[in-house]
Amino acid sequence: QINFLRVTKQYLPHVARLFLISTFLEDGIRMWFQWSEQRDYIEATWSCGYFLATGFVLLNLIGQIGGCVLVLSRNLVQYACFGLFGIIALQTVAYSILWDLKFLMRNLALSGGLLLLLAESRSEGKSMFAGVPSMGQSSPKQYMQLGGRVLLVLMFMTLLHFDSSFFSILQNMVGTALIVLVAVGLKTKLAALTLVLWLLAINVYFNAFWTVPSYKPMHDFLKYDFFQTTSVIGGLLLVVALGPGGVSVDEKKKDW
């Protein structure tokens, strides 16, 4: 773990950010290539008319690609994160994700990744939270890191397999143990790195959209899953790169 962090210290945060925003980048590009289909879907679902449906697709396209460019260029990162939060909220309502628990948990996990990105962009977290009293030694940035970690683990709740095979039970037990370690902040970097490797393997194996012809609906479904999982991997890589923050067992152990 120490050798990995030493070797990757320079570029790991950049890779983490790219992974994290990948689902927004892919969705923004998809809005461009599927402009008519997306507009017609929104118009038919919400009976909102041609112009409002067009505005929705345009907002998604500009908001997501613009937000990604700002995040990767390290300009106005806070505003980019708030914009992407808005896109998640908008899509959750527009595509009726609110009533699908699995997709809702994945969207919340995605929000957790953005929360970590927001925390990373704050050196102290003070200017945005001016006048907010801090509890003990913990700054708002550290509570954002805690919230981000807790939301990220929701992704793994959607990957648990509820059957009686030995492999599934073993995978669930190991996965749940790692999830708890990341959430409470104990051996956080090692647990997060292990989850990254596990998720990468699962993602490439189960969400291999490139093996399905693009005209089949399953292609889009697998691609959506693939990039959402990649974004959560990016959030975990940020945890590996930056640590768990002050509100964690790892940090409290230093005080003890």
Helix content: over 70%
Q: Which oligomeric form is depicted?
A: single chain
Strand content: under 5%
Element-by-element helix/strand order? HHHHHHHHHHHH
Straight-line N-to-C gap: 24 Å
Weakly predicted, low-confidence segments? 124-137
**What is the structural class?**
mainly alpha
What's the Cα radius of gyration? 19 Å
Q: What's the overall average pLDDT, rounded?
A: 83
The general outline is globular
Largest sheet: none
Please tally the β strands and state the result.
0
How many helices? The count is 12
Pfam families: SURF4 (PF02077)
Protein name: Surfeit locus protein 4
InterPro entries: Surf1/Surf4, Surf4
Transmembrane segments: 50-72, 79-98, 142-160, 166-184, 191-210, 230-249
Protein described:
- With 256 residues, the protein is an all-alpha fold.
- The chain has 12 helices and no strands.
- The longest helix is centred in the last third of the chain and has 26 residues.
- About 5% of the residues have low confidence.
Quick rundown:
With 256 residues, the protein is mostly helical.
Write the layout of secondary structure elements.
Layout lengths: L1 H7 L3 H22 L1 H12 L3 H24 L3 H18 L6 H20 L19 H13 L1 H4 L8 H19 L3 H19 L10 H26 L6 H7 L1
Helix pairs in contact: 2-4, 2-11, 3-4, 4-5, 5-6, 6-7, 6-11, 7-11, 9-10, 10-11
List descriptors.
endoplasmic reticulum, transmembrane helix, 256 residues, Surf1/Surf4, Surfeit locus protein 4, mainly alpha, transport
